[in-house]
Design a protein that fits this description.
The protein has 471 residues and is an alpha+beta fold. 17% of the residues lie in helices and 34% in strands. The protein has helices at residues 150-155, 200-205, 302-306, 355-369, 371-374, 392-396, 398-407, 431-442, 454-470, and strands at 2-7, 16-21, 26-28, 48-63, 66-73, 82-85, 89-96, 107-108, 128-134, 139-144, 159-165, 175-184, 194-195, 210-213, 226-229, 233-242, 247-252, 256-260, 267-271, 273-276, 280-287, 292-298, 310-316, 409-415, 418-424. The strands form six sheets. Strands 3, 4, 5, 7, 9 and 13 form a six-stranded mixed beta sheet that branches. It has a six-stranded mixed beta sheet with strand order 14-12-16-21-18-19. Strands 15-23-22-17-20 form a five-stranded mixed beta sheet. Strand 1 (2-7) and strand 2 form a beta hairpin. It binds copper (II) ion. Residues 71, 102, 104, 145, 147, 153, 158 line the site of copper (II) ion.
Length: 471
């Protein structure tokens, strides 16, 4: 039986009407900010659930030194997490804070009805709207603002999720977390400081400066990392607000035991990376078997390391070396006759016309064969690759330097007072190329000069072969 009450007169501007199924218990929904999720629903019957949500425009941190005017459901991005049960009757109140500059509304993908509630919830600043819907379908659903320009409201952070628990609920887990990805478009590039305005042109071109979890760079790293212990079961409610990008959600160091695809009812197992459409979501579950940091990323990986889509779960507990050993050894790998590229197979070199030309050709050989280790600036890398710039070892003995490049070098070597213990492979360079590259090295980065001729190398090679055959 339904009871409908209308309160109001023509002298009052507000006319309030509600229809409540008389037999349903009335309940106030408990809403949470990310990464927290409201507790699982324990009741076994439907209820009349009252949801109060407030839209608010706030200046918040996007990254260190970078602020942004976010438009929010509940004061932060993503919006509050709503948890109800399949069959519930939801009485929804959307209030738009008086300080807002824009009207807002809400389109809940969990609603069966025009616009997901958008028109019914259209609310001017300082007003409050009410509508009701019945949760006909279980599942995880995105909600978002659908006020024109829709893209702009979503790009400013107006999205969140509502979980309609199936009758009977989900299996119990130790921890549940709420994560939502979003892409942001700012006038200044990534990391450019100050209060950054929204950039409509970039949004239309789908070229975000930021792609982040839970509304800012670092919202789930460092002190904000999620926590778990070895042996626990974790459930992540992961949404994607967009407005534009599709997420390739991946946890480095884990495999999803269960994935409830698109937050519906289909269950997949043993999944590495889960696609999450813009305006869609997924539920992933896994057990933590090993301690350490699990890294959450959008595996469109530049977004993770250059635009902010990075999070962390710190797992504490005992390491089981049978599951993962850690590094067991690190030895030098130097196969017989190792060569980056054998010059015998390469096209015949054009002979250098004079010493200046030799240096010019030597630069190309250096950039292609040596710079990976000794670096383009010849400075090397501390404790790994010795410098060639002003190297006392190199400059002391020209023939020894020829020998290093011809044969490679292994074991301990002291350069400018620092000891290096590593291995340089023989690169299989021709006499001409060894002469060229050494002439380049000798005349670059402030080195003292001098030239090496192919004949010098040929002579060294002959004595080299003589020594070898004498053994
Ligand atoms: Cu809005």
């Amino acid at each position: 039986m339904r009871k409908c009450i209308t309160i109001g007169t023509f002298t009052l501007l507000a006319i309030i009407s509600y229809c409540v199924s008389a037999e349903l218990p009335i309940e106030q929904a408990l809403l949470t900010d990310a990464p927290m999720v409201p507790p699982a629903i324990t009741r076994t019957t439907s209820a009349h659930v009252v949801v109060n949500l407030e839209t608010k425009e706030v200046v918040n941190r996007m990254a260190d030194g970078v602020d942004y005017t976010f438009w929010t459901f509940g004061g932060s991005v993503p919006g509050k997490f709503i948890r109800i049960r399949e069959g519930d009757e939801v009485e929804f109140h959307l209030s738009n804070h008086p300080s807002s500059k824009m009207p807002h509304n809400i389109d809940l993908h969990a609603v069966t009805g025009p616009g997901g509630g958008a028109a019914a919830s259209f609310t001017a600043p300082g007003h409050s709207s009410q509508f009701s819907f019945k949760a006909l379908h279980s599942g995880l659903y995105v909600y978002h603002c659908a006020t024109a320009p829709v893209g702009m409201h979503i790009a400013n952070g107006m999205y969140g999720m509502i979980f309609v628990e199936p009758v009977g609920g989900l299996p119990k887990v130790d921890r549940e977390y709420y994560i939502m990805q979003g892409d942001f478009y700012t006038k200044g590039g990534y990391g450019e400081t100050g209060l950054q305005p929204f950039d409509m042109a970039k949004a239309i071109k789908e070229q975000p400066d930021y792609v982040v979890f839970n509304g800012s760079v670092g919202s789930l790293t460092g002190d904000n990392s999620l926590k778990a212990n070895v042996g626990e079961t974790i459930r992540l409610f992961v949404g994607n607000g967009g407005p534009n990008l599709v997420s390739s959600f991946h946890v480095i160091g884990e495999i999803f035991d269960n994935v409830i695809e698109e937050g519906g009812t289909a269950m997949n197992h043993n999944v590495e990376t889960q696609l999450i459409p813009a305006g869609g979501d997924t539920i992933v579950e896994f057990k933590t078997e090993y301690p350490g940091n699990l890294i959450l990323v959008d595996h469109s990986i530049f977004r993770a390391f250059n635009k902010g889509a990075l999070g962390m779960i710190k797992v504490s507990g005992e390491a089981d070396k049978d599951i993962y050993s850690g590094k067991q050894s690190d030895t030098v790998y130097l196969p017989e006759g190792a060569a980056v590229q054998s010059m015998e197979e390469a096209p015949q070199p054009v002979l250098a016309k004079n010493d200046n030309d030799r240096v010019a050709q030597g630069k190309r050989i250096f950039d292609q064969n040596c710079a990976a280790c000794h670096q383009l600036n010849g400075e090397g890398i501390p404790a790994a690759f010795p410098p060639l710039a002003k190297s006392d070892y190199l400059l002391k003995d020209k023939n020894r330097a020829i020998g290093v490049i011809m044969n490679g070098l292994q074991g301990k070597v002291e350069v400018n007072g620092k000891v290096f213990v590593g291995a340089m492979p023989s690169l299989g360079l021709s006499d001409e190329h060894i002469a060229n590259v050494l002439s380049y090295v000798l005349n670059t980065w402030g080195n003292k000069g001098g030239f090496v001729q192919p004949a010098d190398v040929t002579k060294m090679r002959a004595s080299n072969t003589a020594t070898k055959s004498a053994h």
